[in-house]
Write a structure and sequence with these properties.
Blueprint (H helix, E strand, L loop, with lengths): L11 H5 L1 H5 L1 H9 L4 H10 L2 H18 L1 H8 L46 H37 L1 H15 L3 H14 L10 H14 L3 H14 L3 H8 L4 H9 L4 H24 L11 H11 L5 H28 L6
Helix pairs in contact: 4-16, 5-7, 5-16, 6-7, 7-8, 7-10, 7-11, 7-14, 7-15, 9-10, 11-14, 12-13, 14-15, 14-16, 15-16
Length: about 350
């Protein structure tokens, strides 16, 4: 009498059976049945460790920027006070106006050290600099995305002369050298509202930066949306909506726009870090935010003058900017992959 065999699919050999392993795929597919596209996208995104970690880092940066005043109050310092002139810190700077402590003056009182020459706290300068750059970049990105989507959808849907002239307008704006135009046009914008003998208010500089960057930041989104709409306007569901008597506005809003959300969202995630770098560049060359407004670009400009004497001053803002831009770009890649069902994530 033969001994009873093990139940099929049990034992360690079952884990190595390709037929048994492949049977888990239909089960996974059954779990995903009946889910909306948004739920499927979220399911794929959660399985991407790089995307989840990047999202957590990005959220952390925005939270820190939003809570900068609270953190500053708890920390007991602010980015405007010249602590080297305070009686509580008589030896904060040496005779050459450099931090007396090691690594740029890092201590229990000043976690990231102090600024050479003026003695301001680097930690709070970084917090408020992040606040300035991040939220300015969000506003610029939202305006640029909205403008690009509107122009791209009108151009792609109506075609003909509308598409031709909007395309020429887009080409005209693309012809501007952005960095040089930023440098040349920023003083012109501020001079229109402020006398040359008066100090330009911070809010006016912020508005000027937003206007200039918005002016030259929507063209890439417009071209992307136009190409997507051109590929969709001849599809069957759009033709069916036309036959049913739907207005162009309803067709664009209900039929076309939901199908191009993915490229718009992905392109927006790439535009925001680019806007941060542009804002920092404007402040670095002296046409963006000026003293005493904390800003990432201002910190790099200060660090560029004293990097030989105090290289640590540029270390913390440099690391913060690199980490944020890298994580936001990785987040954009993960969002794109999560929306694309062909990636197999």
């Amino acid at each position: 009498m033969t001994s009873p065999t093990k139940a099929e699919g049990s034992g360690p050999s079952a884990a190595l059976d390709p037929e048994l392993a492949s049977s888990t795929e239909p089960r996974e597919a059954e779990k995903l049945e009946g889910r909306s596209p948004g739920q499927l996208m979220w399911h794929r995104f959660k399985r991407d460790r790089t995307g989840v970690i990047s999202a957590c880092v990005v959220i952390f940066f925005f939270a820190i920027a939003a809570l900068a005043p609270v953190i500053s109050k708890l920390y007991g310092k602010d980015p405007y006070t010249l602590y080297a002139q305070e009686p509580d810190y008589p030896f904060l700077l040496d005779d050459f106006a450099m931090p007396t402590g090691s690594f740029g003056g890092i201590s229990g009182d000043f976690w990231f050290g102090v600024e050479p020459k003026l003695g301001r706290d680097v930690f709070t300068m970084l917090l408020y600099g992040m606040r300035t750059s991040l939220y300015m970049a969000v506003v610029v990105t939202l305006f640029s995305v909205a403008t690009g989507v509107i122009i791209g959808m009108v151009s792609g849907y109506f075609g003909g002369k509308v598409d031709y002239w909007l395309g020429r307008v887009t080409d005209f704006f693309l012809a501007f050298p952005q960095q040089l135009f930023f440098i040349a046009f920023m003083p012109v914008v501020t001079a229109l509202f402020v006398s040359p003998t008066d100090e330009t208010p911070v809010y006016l500089r912020a508005i000027s930066i937003i206007l200039v960057m918005w002016f030259l930041g929507w063209m890439g989104m417009a071209r992307l949306v136009r190409s997507s709409v051109l590929s969709l306007r001849e599809r069957e569901f759009v033709e069916a909506a036309k036959v049913s008597g739907a207005s162009p506005a309803r067709i664009v809003r209900k039929e076309i726009l939901p199908n191009i959300v993915t490229p718009i969202l992905v392109q927006g995630t790439y535009m925001l870090p680019s806007a941060i770098l542009s804002i920092a560049f404007l402040s670095f060359v002296g046409v963006g935010f000026t003293e005493p407004t904390p800003d990432w670009g201002r910190m790099f400009a200060i660090g560029a003058d004293i990097y030989e004497q105090d290289p640590m001053f540029m270390f913390f803002p440099g690391v913060a900017m690199v980490v944020f831009v890298l994580c936001f770009n990785l987040l954009g890649d993960s969002v794109r992959d999560a929306f694309d069902p062909k990636t197999g994530r």
